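Supplementary Methods S3. Input chains for the assembly prediction are listed below.
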Amino acid sequence: MERRAVYRNKVLPWLLIGPQLLLVLVFFYWPTSQALYWAFTLEQPWGGGNLWAGLDNFLYIFRDDRYWGTVLRSAFYALAATGLSMLVALTLASFVDRALKGTKLFQSVFIWPYAIAAPAAGVAFRFIFSPEAGLVGAINDIWPGIWDPATNGIHALAMVIVCHAWLGIGYNFVFFLAALQMIPRSINEAGAMDGARPFRRMLDLQLPLIAPTAFFLLIMNIISSFTDSFGLIDTMTEGGPIGQTEVMVYKIYVDGFKGLDYSGAAAQSIILMLLVIGLTFVQFKWVERRVHYN
Amino acid sequence: MIERSPFFDALTYAVMIIGLILVVIPFWIVIVAASQSLQEVSRVPISLLPSDQLWVNLSEAWDRADLAPKMLNSFIVAIGVTVGKITLASLSAFAIVFFSFKARMICFWLIFITLMLPLEVRIVPTYSIAANALLPFQVILDTLGITGLVQAVSGVQIALNWNLLNSYTGLILPLVATATGTFLYRQFFMTIPDELVEASKMDGAHPLEFFFDVLLPLSRTNMLALATIMFVSSWNQYLWPLLITTDRANFGTVVMQLKALIPAQNGTPDWNVTMAGALIIMLPPLLVVAFMQRWFVRGLISRDK
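Predicted structure tokens for the full assembly:
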């Protein structure tokens, strides 16, 4: 990233970068260090400062079966929503990439879900999947009681995952399409010359070539499943029925802001942060290797 | 297209149409339900054709969720974040790319590490700062002994306090304090040829003149992309506004109102009003994305690759 022609002012760069550094320090580094402090201490109920707790907060969480349930659920949620969303987006992008007549119209509509707020989609899907209303709920008229996300945890989780996957279609589609369009035409033509039909070329040529994008999206989707899930779960199920749709971010919110257990919530935040940092790290490593091999 | 394959073309259209239905169905249902009367919306199975009650439901939802002031708040926050981010991001990327100063790489990493952790992941710690955003400086002054010194000399005790709860700054600043935009601008500034900088230097232009007269006009596309991304993501914020505003009536945003529109467990199931509200709330970012698509797609992709 070195340039030959650069300015050598002493003060000006600090004035330019100062505001951003200040914001980052106040709203990122300070709070993150604060969370570390909380995670290793315990607030006394009647004031008087925090007591050093060592790893107790973490041990307490790790001994809690409910927490492990949340972790497993989050992992399932992340993988299911990511897989579903990426599969749909990849299929659509592969066919849009053929650039037949009128494709532009489809292409622009497929991006729409990106613009929708998670809670707005949550409210819409809650209505669509409501057992009393006349869409998916209509199935209850034929087989009474077959669909009820209000009492059946599996139904509720499936409903949230479907909504999450739908929300992700736009973002994933944009990236898949861009990756596909970057594949040189000549490769496709060579494949055709060798007698590979379009579908064969999709599977054996295009798919392997966009693997790096797919991996990038996999990580981004998993990270977003931690962040976007809050708006969905809060509007669709509030973690219910009986905690069966509670994921990590939602539990942090409930424990920290409803239960006022800041130490516990901070310890959970640290775990979640480490998880996200770990995922990002894996991604960087992957990108590095790809560059190396090319 | 390389060869003629009518069967595969037909399949392509079939898949795209199925995809279109999949993507559009939720939008369609929101619009249909928002246009029906309570009776129509409660029918099982529901009719999938729009009715004539759209305006009635829209105004009912507008009143019930008190959307007028909330709309204004949402616009203030979204525009504040967008403008703030573009300003800060372009300036700091300018400093990082075009200046050589000692701590350049440290600054670079200090800013870019923030890309890793989205606000939702570090919500508990960020909230701790909300009650007093100047607390870090107070602690610094305390540890350095400056507070004690000043008190001993002048008798004045330094107590910095800046409460962010229930304020636009509280809603906006934490969203501005991430690196997405800086990264986008950096990537673009890196592609500016050195000759351009040299020419500007030779003409005796001040760095700031170079920034305003050369760089900014060149980065118009980037700016539009970033503006779209930031507008959409800040309009759609949910968890942060929920925590930072206890005074919902004055500082609530529209997205926070969605939950209030959901029919109560044993109340009237007037989903038509709920859907009308959802329609109003999801429309502004949707319009922005639809109109800005060309630029925004480019920005989204160059941001992360």
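The mean pLDDT of chain A is 84. The longest helix of chain A spans residues 65-96.
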